[in-house]
Structures are given as structure tokens and as C-alpha cells.
Design a protein that fits this description.
The chain is of the alpha+beta class and 151 residues long. It is built from 5 helices and 5 strands, in the order ββαβββαααα. Strand 1 and strand 2 form a beta hairpin. The longest helix is centred in the last third of the chain and has 15 residues. The radius of gyration is 16 Å and the shape is elongated. The structure holds FE2/S2 (inorganic) cluster (2 copies). The site of one FE2/S2 (inorganic) cluster has 8 residues, from loops.
Length: 151
């Protein structure tokens, strides 16, 4: 089937098979920030936005994304850099494999709730698994970010 995707503002038209998964399509098109973890919608590392909504790309058919707006971390670099500064200031960046999915959850949260509480942050991040498992440091960094940005 012919599919057109708008990824971070760039348009791509190509032929996709009915069972092609968006994660595979994005990586094939060069969006290597979108990581593959569990491949079963459980770990959150492949998360992206489709028409502004957070979805695990390993569980989303490419044909379903036809004519939709896709956002990967490459498309929100400025905001991500700002949040990442708080994470590096706490020294908790670790291996970084889960970071793109983690960041996309935060971007979705900040789109939906202007001044979230730390409880809401934790709720949005509940589906993002981190094999380095340093959640506490990351939460501390995000609490610092909220303290400055929720004023
Ligand atoms: S690879 Fe998609 S949720 Fe784990
Ligand atoms: S920072 Fe290593 S998997 Fe999360």
C-alpha cells in the first residue's frame, strides 16, 4: 500500500506491506533515535508521537500512520536539550538507551498538562523501563526542572 508519513515536518511517500511496523519504518528511514527493546509495547523505548499522542511504535502499523504527523526526538531537540541539562546536572544520564522514549513521554506530558506535578510526571513515566534502573536520580532532576519551569 502507498503510504505518506510526515516525520518531524518532512514528507515521505513509499510502499509499505500491511504488516510493516512503524518502528521498523522509522529506523529504515534513518530515525535511529527510536530504539527497539521489548518489541511488545511494554518497555517504552520506542515511543513517539502520532498526531501529538504518545504511542509505542513497535505496536503501531505503518499503514495506520498514513497522512499522520509523526514526531521523534529529532523533532523536539530544543525542549529535550533543556530537560537533558537537568539530568546531566544530577549526573544521572547513565547509558542513555531509554532516554529517547523517556523524553517523548515527557514531551507528551508537557503538551497535555502545562504545569504538571511530580506525581503526574511519575504517572507518565510509569511505562518507561530503564535497564540501568536509576529512576531516583532522574526523578530528582525532573523535580528540579519543574521547580524552575512551574513558576
Ligand atoms: S520496543 Fe516498543 S515498547 Fe518496547
Ligand atoms: S539509562 Fe540505560 S537503559 Fe535507561
Amino acid at each position: 500500500m502507498e503510504v505518506t508519513l510526515i516525520i518531524n515536518g518532512d514528507r515521505f511517500s513509499f510502499s509499505a506491506t500491511p504488516d510493516e511496523i512503524l518502528l521498523d519504518t522509522l529506523r529504515k528511514l534513518g530515525y535511529k533515535s527510536v530504539k527497539r527493546g521489548c518489541d511488545s509495547t511494554s518497555c517504552g523505548v520506542c515511543q513517539i508521537l502520532v498526531d501529538g499522542k504518545l504511542v509505542p511504535s513497535c505496536g503501531f502499523l505503518t499503514v495506520r500512520a498514513n497522512h499522520k504527523l509523526i514526531t521523534t526526538i529529532e523533532g523536539v531537540q530544543e525542549q529535550v536539550r533543556e530537560i537533558a541539562n537537568y539530568i546531566t546536572a544530577e549526573g544521572v544520564e547513565q547509558c542513555g538507551f531509554c532516554s529517547p522514549g523517556h523524553m517523548m513521554s515527557l514531551i507528551a506530558l508537557f503538551k497535555e498538562i502545562e504545569h504538571p506535578t511530580m506525581e503526574q510526571v511519575k504517572h507518565y513515566l510509569a511505562g518507561n523501563m530503564c535497564r540501568c534502573s536509576g529512576y531516583e536520580g532522574q526523578h530528582r532532576a525532573l523535580a528540579n526542572y519543574l521547580e524552575v519551569n512551574n513558576r
